[in-house]
C-alpha cells in the first residue's frame, strides 16, 4: 500500500509518461561534412522514449602520412516530423554515443558534441492563392552540448568499444502539439549536428587512429525522449528565436513567354 500511495502522489504525469501517438519521420535531409557522407542512408527508429540513429557512412581516421594534425567526424542532418500527439510536448533528456575506436602513437579521440534545433514554420495567411504566401518561424535548441571530453587514447594505445552518455542538464521543450501540425499550414523539423573529434596533434609523425566498427554502423546515437502534458493555447508564445514573415512567395502574374518568372520569393 505504501508503494501505491507514493505513485499516486506523483500526479497525472506519472500515470502516462508518454503519449500513445509517436511523431512520424516524414523525411531526412543530410549535409555532407567531414566523415559523414550520406545522412540519407541512416537507420532511424523513433519510439515513445527513445530516438535511435545509426550513422552508416560516418568514417574518420588520422595517419602519420596525413598532413593535417586533426580530423573531426561531423554529421549534420535534418528530419521532418509529422503526426504529433495532441496536448503533449517533447524534450531530449540526454544522448548516448556508442562505437569503436582504434588509436595508437599519440592519436586520441578527444571529445563528442551534439545539438538539436527544433524549428516550426507556420503559414500566416489563409488565402495563399490570391495573396502572397507568408510564413512565420519559431525555433529553440532542445539540446546544445558544445563538448564532452573523453580523451580516449591519451594514456596509451586504445582499441575497444565505447559508450559515452551526455546528460542534457537543462530540458528545453518543443511547442505544445495540437495534433494538426501534419498539414500544409505547419511544418516541423529537427536539425541535428553530431561531432566526434579525433586528433594526433603533437604526434603528427606517429599518431594513427581509426574511428568506427569493422562491421555494422561505425557510430550510433540514442536520445532519451521526455514527454509532458501541456496547454495547446500557449504554443504561439513558444521559441527562443521568432521570425515574422520568415518566408514570402507571391504570384506576380499569369504565365509569360518572355522567360520572366511568374512567382516572386
Structure notes:
Helix content is 5%, strand content 52%. The protein is mainly beta. Strand 2 and strand 3 (50-55) form a beta hairpin. 27% of the residues are buried. Residues 1-15 and 261-265 have low confidence and may be disordered.
| Rg measurement, Å | 23 Å
What class would the helix/strand composition place it in?
mainly beta
Mean pLDDT: 77
Major β-sheet annotation: 7 strands, antiparallel
Number of strands: 14
Strand order of the largest sheet: 1-5-10-7-8-13-14
Q: Percent range for helical residues?
A: under 10%
Q: How many separate helices? A: 2
User: How do the SSEs run, as a string of H and E?
Assistant: HHEEEEEEEEEEEEEE
Low-pLDDT runs of 5+ residues are: 1-15, 261-265
Alpha carbon gap, first and last residue: 65 Å
Dominant shape: elongated
Oligomer: single chain
